[in-house]
Amino acid sequence: MKQKICSLSITLVVIVCFSRNALSQSIGIFDGQSDVGVVKHKGTGTYDAKLQQYTLTGSGSNIWAKADGFHFVWKKMKGDFILRTNAALIGKGVEEHRKVGFMVRSSLDSTSKQVNVVVHGDGLTSLQFRKETGGITDEKKSTVTHADVIQLERHGNRYIMSVARKGDLFTEDAVSDVDLGDDVYVGIFICSHNANVVEKGVFTNTRIVVPAPATLVPYKQYLGSNIEILDVTTQNSTIIYQSPKSLQAPNWMLDGRHLLYNSEGLLYKFDLKTNTPTVFNTGSVNNNNNDHVLSFDGKWITISSSVDKSGPSIGWVVPATGGEPRRITVTGPSYMHGWSPDGKWLVFCGSRNNEYDVYRIPAAGGAEERLTNTPGLDDGPEYSPDGKYIYFNSVRSGLMQIWRMKADGTEQTQLTNDDYNNWFPHISPDGKWIEYITFLKSEVAPGDHPFYKHVYLRIMPVGGGPSRVIAYLYGGQGTINTPSWSPDSKHLAFVSNTNLLFPVFPTATN
Q1: Cα 303 to chain centroid, rounded
Q2: Are residues 204 and 242 in the same domain?
Q3: Same domain, 181 and 232
Q4: Are 268 and 415 members of one domain?
Q5: Neighbouring C-beta atoms of residue 76, cutoff 10 Å
Q6: What is the 3-state secondary structure (H, E, C) of 334-372?
Q7: Is residue 344 part of a domain?
Q8: Would 1 be classed as within a structural domain?
Q9: Mind listing the pLDDT tens digit for each residue in 264-306?
Q10: pLDDT surpassing 70 at residue 453
């Protein structure tokens, strides 16, 4: 990451120096904050609950060689985890190697064993590590400079650095055999690289994720859920609600004041002003899954639910005010994904004769019509706001990619063609953008979209063109299965996941 400058001044503080000015009071998701090592000017850390943003000031001679001096906002943790933040130094600064980042330490002693992902003032980005107490610090420099997004992940004694400039995909480096012990300090930090100087840094989108254990049984056991709201322009995201349950697929309702999501077979209407959910009435249909979509006029919802818990998913229509649903599809599995803008058609992914394809069916009821017929999975169909096209994802070219066809099923055209698995295209209400979720082919087979994986949310121009990342997260199934744009096309709602051993967002958990 960053070039380390080992000056004689550093060696003067190699003597075992314990942290001073340690504060026990919590700050956001962290337990406390400390100046680590010999620090001339006391550091500070503050948390803006509205923006969910941390601001750190601090001095310190360096994080390098045999001892460190810096300001640290930390949390005690055990086991594996994923740390992620958008970090930025404020102002021009004095030293080119002033630094911010995420760190894992065995202790708050200045000579502690540690691993950190750090971005320097001159843009150098690296994975630094000290394998022995009082030992020399080593590093792996990233090919990415001036990284905006930094992630540090622990798998036992292996630590993985993932970094990117905002909008780009991650570049990864790793180090193994770094034994920090199970019980560690994890947190964000700032170091001025000059004992006489105080520097300032800001951290947004800061997350501590506890991932699924290897023993988790998919679709039988679940992690907790965060509902997040993303500002598409700034790419800053705020967690508005948490639950230890599996919450999935938030739709943004037409009034702009509510979301609709599913959990444990029920649908919930979520009030964005009070941040509280209430059960949405679907009558006797109460095995709802995460394929539910509102009509363009906001008056109707098509839902997917089995007649009983062991049966296949069936398509239904229910008023947006709630009530007893009307059955639409005769057979299943049928997973409902989109309405035509005029409200006359529904599109869905259906399995017929062991082949999953895109179908459309009259919203008033009637015969279904098959629109795709190539071997392999075609899924996630959704109309464009002008009704001219249906966007969907298909595995027909090898990996899962985003496709488009005319509303009658003709002119099927591939829009993405990269080395990832791309799912669930959602068109912004203003018709300008396609949002979709990207899975890593190293983690997920092309025809699958499971829970609890490293994923990206990306957008691309509706007419085609380069994609850019707008969110880096741990999620997958249930993150954005349904249209999740706000009515003004400025925000997105989505679900991320973590084992809620502690609140990721310091509000009441329901």
Answers
A1: 25
A2: no
A3: no
A4: yes
A5: 13
A6: EEEEEECCCCCEEEEEEEECCEEEEEEEECCCCCCEECC
A7: yes
A8: no
A9: 999 999 999 999 999 999 999 999 999 999 999 999 999 999 9
A10: yes
Q: In what side-by-side order are the strands of the sheet with 389-394? A: 378-383, 389-394, 401-406, 413-414
Distance (Å, whole) CA 49 – CA 56: 15
* 433-439: strand order across its sheet: 421-427, 433-439, 453-461, 468-475
Averaged pLDDT, 75-92: 97
Distance from C-alpha of 144 to C-alpha of 427, rounded to nearest angstrom: 31
Residue labelled with tokens 């190699």: 14
Quick check: is 337 in a domain?
Answer: yes
The answer to whether 116 and 62 are in contact (CB under 8 A) is no
**Do 350 and 333 contact (CB within 8 A), yes or no?**
yes
Asked if residue 204 and residue 237 are part of one domain, the reply reads no
pLDDT of residue 506: 42
Range of 467's domain? Answer: 224-498
- Identity at 101, one-letter amino acid code: G
Please give the structure tokens belonging to residue 123: 């843009």
5 pLDDT higher than 50: no
In three-state form (DSSP H/G/I as H, E/B as E, the rest C), the secondary structure along 364-418 is: CCCCCEECCCCCCCEEEEEECCCCCEEEEEECCCCCCEEEEEECCCCCCEECCCC
Question: Is there a domain that residue 217 lies in?
Answer: no
